[in-house]
Design a protein that fits this description.
Chain B: Residues 129-226 form the Acyl-CoA oxidase/dehydrogenase middle domain. Chain B: It comes from Roseicella aquatilis. Chain B: GO terms for molecular function: acyl-CoA dehydrogenase activity; flavin adenine dinucleotide binding. Chain B: Residues 13-125 form the Acyl-CoA dehydrogenase/oxidase N-terminal domain. The complex is a heterodimer of chains A (331) and B (379). Chain A is of the alpha+beta class and 331 residues long. Chain A is 60% helix and 9% strand. Chain A has a 4-stranded mixed β-sheet. In chain A, strands 2-6-5 form a 3-stranded antiparallel β-sheet, with no helix packed on it. Chain A has a two-stranded antiparallel sheet with strand order 8-9. With 379 residues, chain B is α+β, with helices and mostly antiparallel strands. Chain B has 3 domains: 15-127, Butyryl-Coa Dehydrogenase, subunit A, domain 1 (Orthogonal Bundle); 130-239, Butyryl-CoA Dehydrogenase, subunit A, domain 2; 243-375, Butyryl-CoA Dehydrogenase, subunit A, domain 3, CATH 1.20.140. Chain B is 45% helix and 15% strand. Chain B has helices spanning 15-29, 35-40, 47-55, 74-86, 92-108, 111-122, 240-252, 256-259, 262-269, 278-304, 310-332, 342-354, 365-376; strands at 128-131, 147-151, 154-162, 172-178, 192-198, 204-210, 216-229, 233-234. In chain B, the strands form 2 sheets. Chain B has a 4-stranded mixed β-sheet with strand order 1-4-5-8, covered by helices on one side. A 4-stranded antiparallel β-sheet of chain B has the order 2-3-7-6, with no helix packed on it. In chain B, helix 1 (15-29) runs parallel beside helix 4 (74-86) and helix 10 (278-304) packs antiparallel against helix 11. Chain B starts with 14 loop residues before the first helix and ends with a helix. The relative contact order of chain B is 0.12. Classes of the chains: A alpha+beta (331), B alpha+beta (379). At the A-B interface, helix 6, helix 7, helix 8, helix 10 and helix 11 of A face helix 9, helix 10, helix 11 and helix 13 of B. Bound molecules: flavin-adenine dinucleotide. The site of flavin-adenine dinucleotide has 19 residues of chain B, from strand 1, strand 7 and helix 13.
């Protein structure tokens, strides 16, 4: 194992432990009531997680996008109780633009989409062309109602406190690409969690004198779901690796693919896991929807499948049939 | 899903030259392949093509040199497979030997069998068929009734196999046969054995069955007192079931599980430029193709490391089958009889028909999903 593999493993274990110990349905519900998960965020900060993507010489852990994907997947397995992914991306963008990261939660603004927990942010980060911008203070204008019900706010137009030019590898849409990768990775993690929950449920819930997981109709659905879960996991890992190798801009195809595959998987699997949980999964009390609502949120956020598919599809059409396979295998 | 791993793999650096060589070769060899040839791909049977592939060292690539093998890596072999399938090369005359029969003989065959068969598979001379299904035994394969009785010096076979792809053109088949009665109906997996059977042995009648495409793709084989010498029993008598399921695991691990209809996407792409709905659909198809390729590569990498990625392979096959099976209909929605070139329409028609088989051959989708469900821990 290389040093970076070691680092990734250690970090992942920390994240898993932190979330297993400190998160759960109660915390997620409190989030949805607008209560900021202060203690959990403080612990994440104490572990240095928000600056994990910042280079070591700038005071971070120097992780790559592939590592980040693994962390975000772990977050997704716990329905992402803190906007850590957004803050990691924002800090990475600032550092890449030569701006000293601020302490505290950094909001990530992508296009006109609201900023997750913008009201708690110390500053909001956005990109415009190849420039990263930092706007101090929280975002305060409440965003529209969302699937996740977690607070999301728009930053008031203002004068940025700092600007920096991003290296070329980040391209003109760095925040969008990183945000899409983040959402795809969280979906991939949440998918693992709902599949596990549903297998457990199917093995416990009995009808006709036996666990419903013994019925073929149920088995067939969950097997299909497992394939989608596996595909989403591979798609996001592939995208993370591509971003490490060729920069965010150079990984557009893989990131777009990850968002498409994870988004499609979210749709297919949410339908399946709800079908298997039946009425119980339709209740507020059961935690299933804490995950499925977030999967739906993330599949919409930072570009839905359709938008990303169109981009890569249009490029492939332009390149023509004779380049289709060579391009696919060059990745 | 605990323990499920798809570690990303790259094709090795030395594969770049290999890939270039393949592309040049296939461009030349495929100049006159009709839409039917490409659509039929790995059921297509072209001895001359297979012999040329063998001459170039692309069959039995990972096998020991002692048996004519190339001693190359599983990932290099992967490159050969994916290049062939991506263009719909007619690989049927060497495919089964390379993928299933050869590895089985290598793993479980006697030294004599290895020396006898492997070099001739490698050269593209010997074509193999898979003799599993019977008229009354499809998904419930272990219920098969074709039997081999012990006689002096060998075995006497009676019964019937069916759907045996290309058997009428093949040299040998690996047949799963009942060698002793099941001890009780619940233990029907016991008492089965595998044999190498000469397709031209006396007592064998092979009757081609016309398929829905209009081709003689598969056959019915009748065994009437067919004698097979002891030396052609493969592996252990009575252990045929375990052996055959391990053999099917090889089958499932291949990259063909998503590529079968890719030649259609390639052929259709240029025509779709003027179609407004095309970018989104093509984008979705490519996103999945790229992902499935990484999944397949991960499985090939695990095979290379000497692991048995049975669970991962089953998942790739299932997702891949869905993908390749849906593709012809998906593209149909974008095609326009008034605009789309006749050749592309022809390939689309053929693939629409052939795609029915993708979720049948090698075990149906339902059976595969049953296996996956058990692996998930559902009981
Ligand atoms: C093009 C083609 C080539 C083939 N080549 C070969 C070959 O070379 N050698 C060979 O041996 N065989 C070959 N086959 C046969 C193939 O392996 C069988 O078709 C397959 O195993 C299914 O058997 P069956 O057709 O008898 O269907 P059946 O087993 O009768 O199944 C019919 C339907 O019932 C479903 N079903 C059956 N049992 C169950 C169950 N327990 N739970 C849920 N659903 C169930 C099946 O999924 C299917 O949908 C080929 C088939 C095709 C189409």
């Amino acid at each position: 194992m290389s040093d970076t593999d070691d680092l990734r493993a250690i970090l992942l274990e920390q994240v898993e432990r932190l979330l297993s110990d400190r998160s759960g349905p109660d915390l997620l519900r409190a989030n949805e009531r607008g209560e900021w998960p202060d203690a959990l965020w403080a612990e994440a900060e104490a572990l240095g997680l928000p600056t994990a993507l910042v280079p070591e010489e700038r005071g971070g852990a120097g992780l790559g996008w592939g590592d980040a994907v693994a962390v975000w997947q772990a977050l997704g397995r716990h329905a992402s109780p803190i906007p850590l992914g957004e803050s990691m991306v924002a800090a990475a963008l600032l550092a890449a633009g030569g701006i000293a990261p601020r302490p505290g939660l950094l909001g990530l603004a992508v296009g006109r989409e609201p900023v997750a927990w913008g009201r708690r942010a110390a500053a909001v980060v956005m990109t415009s062309g190849g420039i990263v911008l930092l706007q101090p203070g929280p975002a305060t204008r409440q965003g529209r109602a969302s699937f996740s019900r977690e607070p999301a706010d728009h930053a008031a137009p203002g004068v940025p406190a700092a600007e920096g030019r991003l290296p070329d590898a980040f391209g003109p849409e760095a925040a969008l690409l990183a945000g899409a990768l983040l959402n795809a990775a969280r979906i991939a993690g949440a998918l693992e969690a709902v599949l596990d929950m549903t297998v457990d449920y199917a093995n416990t819930r009995k009808q006709f004198g036996r666990p419903i997981g013994g019925f073929q109709a149920v088995q067939q659905l969950l097997a299909r779901c497992a394939g989608e879960v596996a595909a989403a996991g591979v798609a996001v890992a592939h995208a993370g690796r591509a971003a490490d190798r060729r920069g965010l801009a150079g990984a557009e195809f893989e990131i777009a693919s990850a968002k498409v595959v994870a988004g499609e998987a979210a749709g297919t699997c949410a339908a399946i896991v709800h079908q298997v949980h039946a009425a119980m999964g339709f209740t507020d009390e059961h935690p299933l929807h804490l995950f499925t609502r977030r999967m739906w949120e993330w599949r919409d956020g930072h570009g839905a499948e359709r938008a990303w598919a169109r981009r890569i599809g249009a490029k492939a059409l332009e390149r023509g049939g004779e380049n289709l396979w060579p391009d696919l295998t060059a990745r | 899903m605990a323990g499920l791993r798809f570690d990303l793999r790259d094709t090795p650096p030395e594969a770049a030259a290999l890939r270039a060589e393949l592309r040049a070769f296939l461009a030349e060899a495929g100049r006159n392949w009709s839409p039917l040839v490409r659509g039929y791909s790995w059921m297509g049977f072209d001895r001359e093509f297979s012999r040329e592939v063998g001459r170039r060292g692309w069959i039995g690539m990972t096998w020991p040199a002692a048996y004519g093998g190339g001693e190359r890596t599983a990932l290099e072999r992967y490159v050969v497979l994916e290049e062939m399938l991506a263009v719909g090369a007619p690989v049927g005359a060497h495919w089964i030997g390379d993928r299933q029969s050869g590895p089985l003989i290598l793993r479980l065959g006697t030294e004599e069998q290895r020396r006898e068969f492997l070099p001739r598979i490698v050269s593209g001379e010997l074509a193999f068929a898979i003799g599993l299904s019977e008229p009354d035994s499809g998904s419930d394969l272990a219920s098969l009734r074709t039997r081999a009785e012990k006689v002096p010096g060998g075995w006497r076979i009676n019964g019937r196999k069916v759907w045996t792809t290309n058997a009428h053109k093949c040299d040998f088949m690996i047949a799963l046969l009942r060698t002793s009665p099941a001890p009780d109906p619940k233990a029907k997996h016991q008492g089965l054995s595998q044999f190498l059977v000469d397709c031209r042995a006396s007592g064998i009648t092979i009757r081609p069955i016309l398929d829905l495409v209009g081709e003689e793709g598969f056959n019915e084989i009748t065994f009437d007192d067919v004698f097979v010498p002891d030396s052609l029993l493969v592996g252990q008598e009575g252990h045929g079931w375990e052996q055959a399921t391990a053999e099917l695991a090889f089958e499932r691990a291949g990259p063909e599980r998503y590529l079968s209809s890719l030649p259609l996407l390639t052929a259709a792409l240029d025509d779709l430029r003027s179609e407004p709905a095309a970018p989104e659909t093509v984008g979705r198809l490519l996103a999945r193709a790229g992902t499935l390729r990484q999944m397949s590569l991960a499985v090939a990498g695990m095979l290379q490391d000497g692991k048995t990625p049975a669970r991962e392979a089953a998942l790739v096959k299932d997702v891949g089958n869905d993908y390749e099976q849906a593709l012809p209909d998906t593209l149909r929605d974008l095609m326009d009889p008034a605009r789309t070139p006749a050749e592309v329409q022809e390939m689309q028609r053929i693939m629409t028909m052939v795609a029915r088989s993708y979720s049948l051959r090698g075990g149906t989708r339902e059976i595969l999903r049953g296996i996956i469900a058990r692996q998930l821990g559902l009981r």
